[in-house]
Amino acid sequence: MAGTSTVTELFALDSLLSDEERQIRDTVRKFGEEKIRPHIAGWFDEARIPAKELAKELGGLGVLGMHLEGYGCAGMSAVDYGLACLELEAIDSGIRSLVSVQGSLAMFAIHHWGSEEQKNEWLPRMAAGDALGCFGLTEPDFGSDPGGMRTRAVRDGSDWVLNGAKMWITNGSVADVAVVWANTDLEEGSRGIRGFVVPTDTPGFSAPEIRAKMSLRASVTSELVLQDVRLPESAMLPKAAGLRGPLSCLNEARFGIIFGSIGAARDCLETAVDYAATRLVFDKPLASYQLTQAKLADMALEVGKGHLLAYQLGRLKDAGHVEPAQVSLGKLNNCREAIKVARECRTILAANGITLEYPVIRHANNLESVLTYEGTSEVHQLTIGRALTGESAFR
Ligand code: TGC
Ligand code: FAD
């Protein structure tokens, strides 16, 4: 580090973590710096990621479904999981996304809502990184309002037959198993929504990759096409009924993003501090100008406060409960502030800031997706607004 204090030191953040938590954080940081950092700009540039190989390595590290109990999962705390997400997203949001979708969406859905048979079949392999999962909720015409989904599951004898399309699905083209949410006639309207565990080699299932993204380029994003996908009765997640099923999974993934997004912001800030120390403008280091220091100080405040908010929500979750509106506070604040920090750091690096030689523009572009997925800022504002006023303004 060029300066004398990091944000972590200024806020004495380590004093809020146990020795074991710091150890887990350091292990994941070391893995990210050694195994992923050297390759990430190239993967982003080429918009290709060795997802299967990475999944094996991340499984070996123990971070896939690490906050789940049993079935080969590590059974660690929410704070441990959050710290892992923070360190992975300090490298790239796409890596954290791979881990979030695997552990918090696909594995959590099976762990929380699945049958013993489904859990035994998929979770140990997914925890080890031998099988990859994806989570299909969003559709081309239904993102913020998933209750309107058109994908249908219809009974045919004892089978289910699925038809429809999902859009923007992380890990879709590389997944071995897809958790797909579809409407049924088991109950009226969105209460009829059920989850299905779909092996991706089932006839009628395909997952074309979405190319030409300018954000999350080191992440696979796909469409899921379901054409007369026939599944046995046992493919349905037996315990999930209605929109509550998928939304409960989103709480888990949003929690990881609260930590992750602030990791991306920290990486941008550390890069800008280092850069300002050595870049000479008008014969002096950029760091010695008051305008630069004002920018750095304001960003340090937001990065530090973002950590505090993440730790507080992590402690609440570990104590047994965190409300969806509290998760919305963290997702809204930390994503919104992280993208502001990334953009401000880019101004400090100026022209150098637009290249992949530095991580800043990559983080800024990634954070455009992170701000949008798992509930847009507006969705989270409305969730917080509803908690404050008792009035729902979604419709
Ligand atoms: P609403 O009437 O409010 O609720 C329907 C039922 O769901 C319950 N519920 C929740 N349960 C658990 N957790 C939550 N966060 C919940 N929010 C609501 C609710 O109690 C109710 O239960 P019940 O039993 O009474 O029926 O539903 P609504 O149709 O008005 O929609 C509410 C809204 C807009 C908040 C929700 O639909 C929403 O969150 N929209 C945003 C969609 C979204 O975030 N999609 C993300 C897709 S996955 C993804 O983006 C992965 S990105 C990759 C990565 O993570 O890295
Ligand atoms: P829309 O819902 O069409 O929203 C458009 C605009 O309208 C937004 O600004 C929104 O905030 C605003 N808006 C919506 N409702 C209201 C309202 N009531 N009042 C005011 N404004 C409103 N989905 C999955 O299911 N699985 C995945 O793995 C997954 N991965 C993704 C990966 C990437 C890279 C991206 C970009 C998306 C991913 N998504 C995934 C989809 C993501 O969850 C949706 O994009 C997101 O929920 C928003 O939906 P939308 O894009 O259709 O926007």
Automatic annotation (TrEMBL):
Pfam families xref list: Acyl-CoA_dh_1, Acyl-CoA_dh_M, Acyl-CoA_dh_N
Domain Acyl-CoA dehydrogenase/oxidase N-terminal: 18-130
Domain Acyl-CoA dehydrogenase/oxidase C-terminal: 242-388
InterPro entries, per database record: Acyl-CoA_Oxase/DH_mid-dom, Acyl-CoA_Oxase/DH_mid-dom_sf, AcylCo_DH-like_C, AcylCo_DH/oxidase_C, AcylCoA_DH/ox_N, AcylCoA_DH/ox_N_sf, AcylCoA_DH/oxidase_NM_dom_sf, Glutaryl-CoA_DH_mitochondrial
GO molecular function, one term: glutaryl-CoA dehydrogenase activity
Cofactor(s) this protein cannot do without: FAD
Superkingdom assignment: Bacteria
Example GO biological process: fatty-acyl-CoA biosynthetic process
Catalytic activity: a 2,3-saturated acyl-CoA + A = a 2,3-dehydroacyl-CoA + AH2
Acyl-CoA oxidase/dehydrogenase middle domain segment(s): 134-229
Keywords: FAD, Flavoprotein, Oxidoreductase, Transit peptide
Keyword Flavoprotein on entry: yes
Family, per entry: Belongs to the acyl-CoA dehydrogenase family.
PANTHER family reported in the protein's UniProt record: GLUTARYL-COA DEHYDROGENASE, MITOCHONDRIAL
Protein's name according to its UniProt entry: Acyl-CoA dehydrogenase
